[in-house]
Amino acid sequence: MTAGTPRSVGIGVIGYDGVARAHLQAILRLATVFWPPPVRPVLAALAGRSADRVQEAAQRYGAPAAYTDWRRLIEDRRVELLINCGPNDLHADPCIAAAARGLHMLCEKPLARSSAEAAKMRDAAVRAGTVHMTGYNYRFVPAVLLARGMIAEGKLGQIRHFRARYCDDSMIDPDVPYTWRHSRAQAGSGVIGDLAAHAIDLARFLVGEITAVSAAARIFVDRRPRPQGGDGTVDVEDAIEAVVEFAGGAVGTLEASSMCPGRKNFLTFEVNGTLGTVIFNLERLNELEVCLQGNAVGGFQTVLVTERHHPYGGRWWPPGHLLGWEQPFVHQLHRMLTAVAGQGRAGPEGATFEDGYQCAVVCDLLDRAAGEGRRIAAAGVAPSRASGE
Ligand SMILES: NC(=O)c1ccc[n+]([C@@H]2O[C@H](COP(=O)([O-])OP(=O)(O)OC[C@H]3O[C@@H](n4cnc5c(N)ncnc54)[C@H](O)[C@@H]3O)[C@@H](O)[C@H]2O)c1
Predict the structure, then answer these.
(1) CA angle at residue 24 from 335 to 323, to 5 degrees?
(2) pTM exceeds 0.70, yes or no
(3) CA-closest residue to ligand 1 atom 35
(4) 156 shares its domain with 257
(5) Which of 49, 195, 326 maximizes ligand 1 atoms within 8 Å of its Cβ, making it the mutation to test the pocket?
């Protein structure tokens, strides 16, 4: 090790397909973007269900250990940080075990299947005193951070509306096989936890706490073929439509559906204040549409958020050289490792387990409001606690 080279932190990852690939890329790429990194991420172990496939993934990504039992990954002395990319029913037990071992944790969203389960994870993390983050990666998109900065500086004035949609067409085909995502026992909810959770987190990140919700939900396809034969019963919603009210007085709407032909990864939000509007669309993630009252040109301007003075500007490439869906995962990991190195905190830019819990509270409210067909105020839900990240 040469003088000034940061110490290494061993990372164990549960999962290697799906979103885990974005985390694995972040581990491998971080030092190419952030040098010197606060600590150097080293892939120490992978866990997955199939022995053959996890071995192959370990070879592919250069992990020295591969396990089919996640407990062995958590016990592996080389692992200091757990990145949990398991299905929603595999978030709580590994994270609580990891906290007991004193590991730092980055757990995918939604933090848990319910706010009660999320509270247990948050409490375990706070007790452990380690760094904890929930994988709300869209917080780390430069255009989202630019919008947040503009709102915080008062450039939009008093915020009156937040409108978000997260739509795709991933379930439109009734022959899409039954998976853990279609089971309330395994996933906790359908598009509420899968898609709307990202929009709820951005609502909290940009505008503040949600205090009341009204909602309607639908299951459009209630049986799907199981890969091993036969049918599975879908008992989680394919779509949710909601009206939300914020502590600061703003009102807005949230929509999430996996039943929208043509929509692929359409996460979009619009924030209207007394002085201006910003619009973001994840499918054009390098851009922010901005309209400010009093601007002599008038109307909306599309800002390409790649200038050196923009968030993470100049970190990757020169201005005008675009970023993709995966790069905010590198920003997220960098924030996490900065906190692990004791050089900063995971929040407020990163979503802590407290943020994951607060988001889960709103997910529960949406589910209840849709089920009971009425407006539900958040009063009486557990108040926000110090996050202790
Ligand atoms: N932040 C994002 O943008 C984003 C995107 C997609 C998914 N997610 C979240 O990530 C999580 C995983 O979603 P996905 O789409 O990657 O799912 P997936 O089904 O594609 O992958 C799940 C992974 O978990 C592993 N796994 C399952 N059971 C296991 C067990 N018992 N032991 C060890 N490993 C096991 C599987 O091998 C697989 O690699 C979910 O919580 C989901 O909500 C987040």
Answers:
(1) 65
(2) yes
(3) 48
(4) yes
(5) 49
